[in-house]
Write a structure and sequence with these properties.
Mean pLDDT: 91
GO molecular function, one term: hydrolase activity
Radius of gyration: 19 Å
Structural class: mainly alpha
Low-confidence stretches: 1-7
Organism: Mycobacterium asiaticum
Protein name: Metal-dependent hydrolase
Number of strands: 0
Number of helices: 12
Keywords: Hydrolase
Distance between the termini: 17 Å
Helix content: 55-70%
Strand content: under 5%
Largest sheet: none
Length: 305
């Protein structure tokens, strides 16, 4: 398998081309808990479109990076994010087969992200175009702070295991979470390298945090309203209940404590999670191990030729 060594804590190593079989995964993969199921299912709606814009912003910024180690880490980051987007997109197809069409929500999200994380207006002069790139990178760094936090949460919490959650879905969440922890510093380091302006970074978090949570809640409402098997509606008290059961991160963690840490001028993503914990899971994950075996078999065939 082609491999880029871990340059320092928080940078990616390589893409793991994992594959999942959803044929045995029920619609409510957290048994008897459609609320927790759909709150987490929102990630399948948010991440494919979001990660495409993450890739585009980092690719555009790569031309400004002149640090060899940081530049080398960009390629495996892009490969990882592209595979994450593909894996979650397949889950959307599985949801459609089970009677939940997510297109109306994802189309709306795509249009919004194309404005906020897309190309700058054509009439912008060069200085404003450069600022626009810095802001997009800062937005992506803020969002990567949330994905790393969620990755650390899903790796360390066992509430979903105790609830009897579908093991295939848990493996998807933990594989993705582990890679988010593994590359948690990359976008932040690229932003610091090409800009480093604290005001842009702080403003991006102030704007991004409520929008991220707003889209998440809107997505959960959408899924529950379009679930043909239930009559339940989204309720805030159900979120509090699920957080007490360790099936979801709590609203206080998402809205207050996690953004507050990011707002410190001295913040760096490195101490936010443990890379070794993520790598240990990736060495354990059934789908990650299967991907490694496939890659090794393909390499052996290539050598034999």
């Amino acid at each position: 398998m082609p491999q880029v060594e871990l340059h320092h804590d928080g940078h990616p190593r390589y893409r793991r081309m994992v594959r999942f079989d959803w044929s045995d995964t029920p619609l409510h993969w957290v048994p008897d808990d459609p609320f927790s199921t759909h709150m987490i299912n929102v990630l399948h709606l948010l991440l494919p479109e979001g990660e495409r814009h993450f890739i585009k912003a980092v690719l555009e910024a790569s031309s400004l990076v002149d640090d060899p180690e940081l530049e080398a880490a960009i390629k495996p980051f892009i490969q990882q994010e592209s595979w994450h987007a593909w894996a979650h997109q397949v889950v959307l197809e599985h949801l459609a087969e089970q009677g939940i069409d997510t297109k109306a929500y994802t189309d709306r999200l795509g249009k919004t992200l194309s404005i906020s994380l897309g190309d700058p207006p054509k009439f912008f002069p060069p200085a404003l175009r450069r600022w626009w790139l810095y802001r997009r990178l800062a937005d992506v760094a803020a969002l990567e702070h949330f994905t790393a936090m969620l990755g650390e949460w899903v790796l360390t919490n066992r509430g979903l295991d105790y609830a009897g959650a579908d093991p295939m879905m848990l493996d998807l969440l933990r594989w993705h979470g582990a890679e988010e922890v593994e590359h948690r510093s990359l976008v932040f380091d690229v932003y610091q390298h090409v800009s480093g302006n604290y005001c842009i970074r702080a403003f991006s978090m102030l704007m991004t945090a409520p929008l991220f949570i707003g889209w998440w809640v809107a997505g959960a409402r959408y899924l529950m309203n379009n679930d043909p098997t239930i009559d339940e509606k989204w309720r805030f008290r159900d979120w509090l209940r699920a957080a007490r059961q360790y099936r979801l991160p709590g609203p206080w963690k998402l809205l207050v404590t996690s953004p507050a840490r990011y707002m410190r001028p001295s913040h760096h993503p490195g101490p936010e999670a443990d890379t070794q914990m993520a790598v240990d899971y990736l060495n354990y994950s059934p789908v990650a191990k299967a991907a490694h075996e496939r890659a090794r078999a393909q390499a052996d065939k290539a050598v034999a030729r």
